[in-house]
Amino acid sequence: MAEVARGHYFVPEAAKWPLVGSIALTLIMGGFASYLNGSALGSKFSIAGFMLLVIMLFGWFGTVIRESESGTYQPWEDMSFRLGMSWFIFSEVMFFAAFFGALYYARILSVPWLLGEGTGTETHMQLWGTYAEIWPTNGPGNLGASDFHMGWWPLPFINTIILLSSGVTVTWAHHAIKANHRAQLIIGLFLTVALGFLFVYLQGVEYIEAYHAGMTLSSGIYGSTFFMLTGFHGMHVTLGAIILTVMLFRAIRGHFTPERHFAFEAAAWYWHFVDVVWLGLFIFVYVL
pLDDT tens-digit profile of 175-193? Predict the structure, then answer.
């Protein structure tokens, strides 16, 4: 299937899957753009691209899983995977930090300036003299459609408990595989996946409540940062739950050993990152 080159690093054979993935993404984006411009074939191209993407994921991931289970990967590859996952999570941290920074700027800095603090005296007197401090703010000119604030009770608090509990169950599963307790590994993974998808469902319920209250992406800085942060976080939870579902099926099939289980460990790292981001969201978006 492949060969070891440059001394001790595994070099796989040339694969068709990157090309397949590129074609799939082109079909998805091109089809979606055509659909937005009124093309009747746009949606069909997007669906075909999505189906091709799913085929690519099954094919490529299956190849990697077979390589792993055949004992191809050695400590050098393991270190490479760990470094790659670490840098990936760091990039995700910086991604969310940018939007947390936008929220901090809007609430802590811009509102006092509009009220005349610091060098903003003339701004307040000449431009926005009637502006009063309120959070969420929908702009000094009331440009937004709503100043609705999503409180922390009950759904956000319940979701926090759910996600923190899933962090406990995935940690239990991690310790189980290290102790070679496969039944506990499977139970822990199943509970984590169930809690993850329950979180996504309840966040959907929360979004419906917010929309009924009049809050949208265009309803001021709070609405835009709220949906940007919680929306991207929800996408990360969905992807993490799907990844852990794959880990669950692999565990049921007898994959992973106490010595060789980094694929599961990487998924656990990602899930803990999702937990930490949600804690930040709960405090800075819902509570404060």
Answer: 999 999 999 999 999 999 9
Determine if the pTM surpasses 0.70.
Answer: yes
Q: How far apart are alpha carbons 204 and 27 in whole angstroms?
A: 28
What gap in Å lies between CA 27 and CA 36, rounded to an integer?
Answer: 14
Q: Are 124 and 115 in contact (CB under 8 A)?
A: yes
Contact 244, 271 (CB under 8 A): yes
Cα separation, 148 vs 216, in Å, equals: 10
CA dihedral for 189, 190, 191, 197, sign (positive or negative): positive
Report the distance separating Cα 176 and Cα 186, nearest Å: 9
| Residue ranges with strand state E in 118-184 | none
The label of the residue with tokens 């991604």 reads: 95
What DSSP character marks residue 9? Answer: E
Rounded Cα distance between 179 and 279, Å, is: 30
CA angle 51, 256, 244 (to 5 degrees): 40
Q: Which residues of 231-252 are buried (b: 16+ CB within 10 A; e: fewer)?
A: eebbebbeebbebbbbbbebbe
* In contact, 152 and 287? CB cutoff 8 Å: yes
Instruction: Name the residue among 18, 181, 175, 82 with its Cα closest to residue 73.
Output: 82
CA distance 115 to 132: 7
For residue range 33-62, what is the model confidence (pLDDT) as tens digits? 999 999 989 999 999 999 999 999 999 999
